[in-house]
């Protein structure tokens, strides 16, 4: 797939998220006409195609409606079930951290009780990759291994709802890690904690796994 298309879609998502936040905060009134494309292009510093894609996203989500030949209007969003993936994009980072603390501890405890041998092999593989990449100062590789380890831990819980829910958080977490860290110091510093977490899961010790999961997120972003 063309990388330019991917970049444009990511930009459209960002613009859509910002517009959606303004709508939810009441910056626009229900049935108010959305500013014309030229004004939106100027406000967000993007091209016409990006604005159109962002508007399309919000129309599909129910935040906007298009009246042919008239314009685009703010829809009543009070009863809309906003997709969690979109909600997370505008959530307060501290709120996300609090939810993750609960979620990850539950995942660790459940994984320690339900994991199988295949789960252990996969977890060990990505834990080793995380450690190796951290020691080699390979930040992106380290973050990829870090995310993979945590996603696999969620899958090891054998609770599909927990697993799917965590995967939504993992998408945002990866972007936050890439933005927040500029070297692998954090991953080196937490290597021991992650090995302790893994050991708790390996030994089927829910108490140990839950303890180290909570300990880890308290030092994380």
From TrEMBL:
Record's keyword terms, sorted: DNA-binding, Transcription, Transcription regulation
Gene3D superfamilies: GntR ligand-binding domain-like (1.20.120.530), Winged helix-like DNA-binding domain superfamily/Winged helix DNA-binding domain (1.10.10.10)
PROSITE patterns reported for this sequence: HTH_GNTR (PS50949)
Keyword S-adenosyl-L-methionine assigned: no
Any Pfam family the entry gives: FCD
Any one GO MF annotation of this record: DNA binding
Record-annotated HTH gntR-type domain positions: 9-77
InterPro entries assigned: GntR_C (IPR011711), TF_FadR/GntR_C (IPR008920), Tscrpt_reg_HTH_GntR (IPR000524), WH-like_DNA-bd_sf (IPR036388), WH_DNA-bd_sf (IPR036390)
Protein's UniProt keywords contain Cell division: no
Name recorded for this polypeptide: DNA-binding FadR family transcriptional regulator
Originating organism: Mucilaginibacter frigoritolerans
